[in-house]
Amino acid sequence: MCNKKKYYITTPIYYPSANLHIGNTYTTVAADALARFKRLAGYDVFFLTGTDEHGQKIQRIAEDKGVTPKEYVDEIVSGIRKLWDIMDIKYDKFIRTTDDYHIKAVQDIFKKLYDQGDIYKSSYEGLYCTPCESFWTETQLVNGNCPDCGRPVEKAKEEAYFFKMSKYSDRLIKHIEENPEFIQPESRKNEMVNNFLKPGLQDLCVSRTSFNWGIPVKFDNDHVVYVWIDALSNYITALGYGSENKELYEKYWPADVHLIGKDILRFHTIYWPIMLMALGLELPKQVFGHGWLLVDGGKMSKSKGNVVDPVVLVDHFGVDAVRYYLLREIPFGADGLFNNETFIKKINSDLANDLGNLLSRTIAMVDKYFGGVIQSPLVKEEIDKELIDLALATPKNVENSINDLKIPEALSHIWTLVGRANKYIDETTPWILAKDEEKKERLGTVLYNLLESLRFISVLVSPFLPSTSEKIKAQLNVDVATWDSLSAFDGTQGGAKVNKGEVIFPRIDVEAKLTELEALKAESVKEEVKPSMKPLKEEITIDDFDKIDLRVVKVIHCEPVPKAKKLLKLKVDLDGEERQVISGISQYYKPEDLIGKYVVLVANLKPVKLRGELSQGMILAASTDDDSKLFTVSIPGDLPTGSQVR
Ligand code: ME8
């Protein structure tokens, strides 16, 4: 057991976004198939995935929802984990960048790089959108304005830490040249070297002060670690690097492959290796950048209404049909198109016709001619040889393709065997053999060869279509399903009985299904369209309304909440009682504008902590849908504080 070769494979860690589409799912399904294949082939596998949870965007969404960033990510992350369960992803570890061990290790990594002079303090200059508190680059702007809110941006400077990237670029170029398998596919390697490394690397900004939902820099608490040092380190912190127990790190690092989409290749093939060099650690053996999954009309986007939801597809077609299409149809490494019609046709041809029929015809014949009992192969003929030889050659062919990360090619080898077995039925015509009592043993042998071919197929498809593999094995009554058992064509046991089961892939009526899916799409686009006025809430009674205690209060003090640029801390007077209220209105009011104002407070709202500050109630305000304008509800006269608003 200890001599097993190890295989460490990772996916990117995902941003917690409420809508993971089929494109995001692609990386993880592919990594899962590779991990399952290696497990089958006898490797000691560690498959890592997880979530990348820090950053300004998350902080802002959470603020808008009135929850803490952690509360927000907790909910989304649990949805992501459910999605991976639905997609039959069998990972060994799920890392969250909010995990304690990760935070500590990242702080130590940052400090080490600073202490040894690879990180230095300077200032970051960029185009800043004040309401959004975001820096943008020239190319990110839309018509010269902030891409998020459309408002003008201005040049601004912020203190920040930088990583001296250029110091390591010669070493990295040398490594890439000496290790041709390091960046794959080949075309992407040239792009990285010629477009980024050779022209000279800019130093990388690795901290921010304009938001605080991030890992604090240990020795300078105004800063949080910015994005890539936090995110990329997950590949080693997940194994225990930087913690007490480094057993997994020592066993599995360096990674055998980081599987990622091409959009994040630069970070993985330049910044990450440089970080590792600076830390004195080994580099991953390979970074593979797969292509983009496109849909009709280009990239998926919610506003175009062309987002393909993996859960909907799984609901309609089953998880293995979705996995099959992604793994077989998308050229691994290049861009590929997802299209409902091609998808359904592929299910019908490859899964229902080729594989499904092979199984159901074979089992039906064993049932019909031998009462379900598997016969031993007693009468062999020359014609069997081609099928048996192909079955015996297929495992190696599949393994070679997987080792070259050619997943569609691996599946195509398996389907060549499926096709050959179907042809064998036509060649041997078992239904004619069945008419002749003297050919009974030959008939038994033909069916044995088909069952044994199906046993090979059931084992070979298991990394790609795990539940289909189980269904086939159950119908065949397969006992031996190890990789090693594929070295001989004799694993099926004569005398055992097959279990006739359900059709594994029923044929789909293409037109009817397409119409059904179109209707669903129209529904979801309709849901997306913003109504001009938010629909009125559910009707309530006067007694319901009476539960809300609305009071007139006077603002007696007001100041910004440090490091939370949207929030103001107000002290209000409620009939002699002083209350503290945190309100997200600093974009619209300066503190001095509010002092002395009579406003309306929801006085019996359960107190909460926002950014560590107690908030005892909520100030009422009215705003436009896009939040471009907001006014607090105020009382024009001098009513005593504590007066009820009814
Ligand atoms: O990039 N086709 O996370 P992410 C194929 N947190 N792949 C796609 C795709 C599409 N249409 N859309 C997205 C991040 N992806 C960072 C990673 S790693 C240290 C930090 C892929 O949630 C994308 O290329 O935006 C990436 O591999 C993965 O989905 C996660 O993207």
Low-pLDDT residue spans: 528-532
Sheet bearing the most strands, described? 6 strands, parallel
Could you please say which CATH topology of the largest domain applies here? Rossmann fold
CATH architecture of the largest domain: 3-Layer(aba) Sandwich
Strand content: 15-25%
Radius of gyration: 31 Å
Small molecules (ligands, ions, cofactors) in the structure: ligand ME8
Structural class, by secondary structure, is alpha/beta
| Total DSSP helices | 21
- In which order are the strands of the major sheet placed? 3-2-1-11-12-7
- Mean pLDDT across the residues is 92
The first-level CATH class of the largest domain is given as Alpha Beta
The helix content is 40-55%
**Number of individual domains:** 3
State the end-to-end distance: 75 Å
The number of E-state strands comes to 23
| CATH evolutionary superfamily of the largest domain | HUPs
Shape: elongated
List keywords for this structure.
single chain, 646 residues, alpha/beta, Rossmann fold, Isoleucyl-tRNA Synthetase, Domain 1, OB fold (Dihydrolipoamide Acetyltransferase, E2P), six-stranded parallel β-sheet, five-stranded antiparallel β-sheet, binds ligand ME8
